[in-house]
Amino acid sequence: MEIGISKKELQALVREAYERFKDETGGKNADYIPYLAQIDSSLFGIAVCLPDGETITVGNCDYSFGIESVSKVMTAILVLKQYGADTLLYMIGADATGMPFNSIMAILLEKNHPSTPLVNAGAISAVSMVQPIGNSEEKWKAITENIAELCGSECKLIEELYRSESVSNHNNRAIAWLLKSYNRIYDDPTLSLDLYTRQCSLGVNARQLAVCAATIANNGVNPCTGKRVFDEAHAPRVVAMLSAVGFYEHTGDWMFTSGLPAKSGVGGGIMGVLPGGFGIAAFSPPLDESGNSVKAQKALQYIMNRIGAGVYSNRRVTVTQDVAAE
Ligand code: GLN
Asked: Atom 4, ligand 1: which residue's CA is nearest?
């Protein structure tokens, strides 16, 4: 069943969600990365990017925050572009772990692959696969160019975050070397870990995340630049990975309550993809115990439930011009 919502109605709904949750105080900034602990926890923004490239924004949508784990999606796309789906599945996997994002246990249990590029282990593995192997500078260029193409504009490194994360990433160092022992790091482990840490330290805003999500929702064509960023065959694979593990051990609850394939990051960002519909993002630093932004989750759940057209529903949403809806 097709359901229409006008741009004006969607704009009003996004504003309503913003007003409804802006004073919520639940959750806590990530503090295992010192830079993230001192970010203003009242920052809050919601952005939606439509298939015609128009973007609806409310709140702090131009504030650059740490992209963190949302970058895992972008680099998974790069690996799909460079190697194809079969190789990604064989070298990394596309499975849920049911465990926290930085779990060592998940690696020990599934030593034949790191499960998915959307948890730390698989993401470090994915970065290690980025070509050209062995060339840190060129790999970094490939990673950042791909992110810029997906987001429609460049994401700049937050130097202070990169430093903060580099001196506190002991768990990720253990992951990189454990993966090496299972032959699941495909480049130098130290180089791969450093590039992963750097990619997580890129600054992104909610508007850029919404554009990236819309590029996935639009089967690989960025609706703002009109450029094809990746082959359309990859889009459903990306959505499948988001649906399986985008919120780590709480992905089932998330999909059940929102119907929105999405990826969170400990910087407070969430990027959601409604295939054929739109890309949506929300940002607010305080997190729940799994590392997912509390306010961003509430806002996105609210919007999705009001529209009533998540991926498991037979209702397909079309955003119409206001004239047609009035
Ligand atoms: N860079 C962070 C880490 O590796 C990303 C975690 C996240 O956003 N869930 O711990």
From this structure: 120
